[in-house]
Amino acid sequence: MVKRRINDSKIIKELRRNSRESIKELALKTGISSSTIKNKIKNMEKKGIIRGYTSVADFDSLNLIRAVFFIKGANGTAESLKKEKFINNMMHISNHYNLFIECIFPNIKEYVKFKNQLEKKNVEFKDYFVTEEIKREDFLANEDNR
Fold first, then answer.
1. Domain assignments of the chain as residue spans, ordered by start
2. 3-class secondary structure, 101
3. I want to staple 71 with a disulfide (CB 3.0 to 4.6 A). Which of 78, 99, 109, 126 is the partner?
4. What is residue 138's predicted lDDT score, i.e. its pLDDT?
5. What are the tens digits of pLDDT across the range 37-53?
6. Are strands 99-105 and 124-129 parallel, antiparallel or unpaired?
7. What is the pLDDT of residue 142?
8. Pairing assessment for the beta strands 99-105 and 65-72 based on DSSP bridges
9. The pTM is what?
10. Helix, strand, or coil here: 64?
């Protein structure tokens, strides 16, 4: 059981580093056979442990505006915001605010529109611009965090 978890972690770690890595390359880097890796990945996808493969974009290079919102909303606030096209991440949080949203906007006009929309929903919120990304998408891709 422990060895199985360790192997799963090794595979996930490598996929977090580069999700386009071939099965052969994963086998070389992890020391796990190609057939085992293929089966483990298929099993983790089936269980929902691996939910997809993606790229990590550099929003600054794309001249996009990033903002985060801490929202104290009534029941249904998250549901009503789910389909907003500029929301990149949304999660329930604890404490005074119960919702955290990270948004990516193509320009300041869209940011202002979104903010006005929140004000119309009559929810309490704080918003901040992301001025610098210090660390991103590193968990389980780094030896230090297993």
1. 2-47, 65-129
2. strand
3. 99
4. 66
5. 999 999 999 999 999 98
6. unpaired
7. 64
8. antiparallel
9. 0.75
10. coil
- Got the DSSP string for 19-42? TT--HHHHHHHH---HHHHHHHHH
**CATH fold group of domain 2-47:** Arc Repressor Mutant, subunit A (1.10.10)
Residue environment code for 112-141, b if the CB has 16+ CB neighbours within 10 A, otherwise e: eebbeebeeeebebeeeeeeeeeeeeeeee
4-18, 109-123, 129-143, range with the lowest pLDDT: 129-143
Query: Which pLDDT score is estimated for 145?
Result: 47
Give φ, ψ of 78 to 5 degrees.
-60, -45
- CA quadruple 69, 87, 76, 52: dihedral positive or negative? negative
Output the pLDDT for position 134.
81
